[in-house]
From TrEMBL:
Protein name: Thioesterase/thiol ester dehydrase-isomerase
InterPro entries recorded: HotDog_dom_sf, Mitochondrial_HTD2
Originating organism: Linderina pennispora
GO cellular component: mitochondrion
Molecular functions per Gene Ontology: (3R)-hydroxyacyl-[acyl-carrier-protein] dehydratase activity
Gene3D superfamilies the UniProt entry points to: Hotdog Thioesterase
Length: 281
């Protein structure tokens, strides 16, 4: 059996499986995320309401964009992890259904598609598309689609503490984010890699800090362009599209282009956010 046929057989079985994970939108977890990234946010970013007794973010507070990424940790045993430490394994219509601190939520994950790209001078690449649906007691809250590329493993002043804490918050044991020796000497990177979801989170916080009054984020499509390393400076950028500056769409929506750059000005991630007005309650 060739490597491609073995992968195809695995794909046939994998596409029939899905996982369900429940988690409580714990205020302490959101507070720890806020303390991790707030030193890097604009001073105009508004504070969250807090519990007067414990000081954590108050229950009932809507999770800011991308904050759900620090919930639903993948509780894998150390024995089930690959050598590099990684596990092997939408937008709702108005009036929206945000996840709220203190509520119970369910994450349903499944594999939508698996494809193989053969290469003449190297091992094949395996593209796996994941569908992740998050629900609460009111129904669907958000839909995410992720595409990961897997390949044969190689024979490891972004702030190191920030990377370590974000790895802990997301229960991410991938060693390229915290093990400098592994990242540089085993996988031949020039330094520790910044998490893609962390950059995504920071870009959305930039949007949140500059959100027009009465608007909320409806969707965000983004793509990682190149790696961001720990020793590089990270710059967050954003601009409203020409459509927004001239005239709004019929539904009042506005478009914001967001991107991050490294110390040489190279784009490391870019995305497009759509924000829409919220009717007064």
């Amino acid at each position: 059996m060739t490597p491609v046929t073995m992968i195809q057989q695995w794909a046939k079985d994998a596409k029939q499986t899905r996982s369900e994970v429940w988690d409580r939108m714990d205020s302490r977890q959101l507070t720890l995320l806020d303390q991790t990234i707030r030193p890097y946010l604009p001073s105009s970013y508004p504070p969250h309401p807090t519990d007067p007794l414990f000081g954590d973010i108050a229950e009932g507070t809507a999770l800011p964009p991308a904050a759900h990424l620090v919930y639903f940790p993948s509780a894998k045993s150390e024995q089930s992890l690959s050598p590099d430490g990684y596990h092997a394994a939408g937008t709702p219509p108005a009036p929206f259904n945000p996840l709220r601190v203190g509520s119970a939520a369910q994450l349903v994950s499944s594999i939508e598609d698996i494809s193989v790209k053969e290469r003449a001078d190297a091992d094949p690449l395996v593209f796996v598309k994941f569908l992740r649906e998050t629900r609460n007691e009111l129904g669907l809250s958000m839909v995410e689609r992720r595409q990961l590329v897997y390949m044969k493993p190689v024979e490891v002043q972004r702030k190191i503490i920030m990377l370590f804490r974000y790895s802990a918050l997301t229960w991410n044991s991938h060693r390229i984010h915290y093990d400098h020796n592994y990242a540089c000497n085993i996988e031949n990177h020039p330094g520790l890699l910044v998490h893609g979801p962390l950059t995504c989170t920071l870009l959305l916080q930039l949007l949140q800090a500059n959100m027009p009054k009465g608007y909320v984020a409806k969707s965000f499509e983004y793509r990682a362009i190149s790696p961001m390393y720990c020793q590089q400076s990270l710059t967050l950028n954003g601009r409203w599209s020409q459509r927004s500056e001239g005239s709004e769409a019929a539904d009042g929506s506005r478009i914001c282009e967001l991107w991050s750059t490294d110390n040489e000005g190279g784009i490391t991630m870019k995305g497009t956010a759509t924000v829409v007005p919220v009717a007064d309650k």
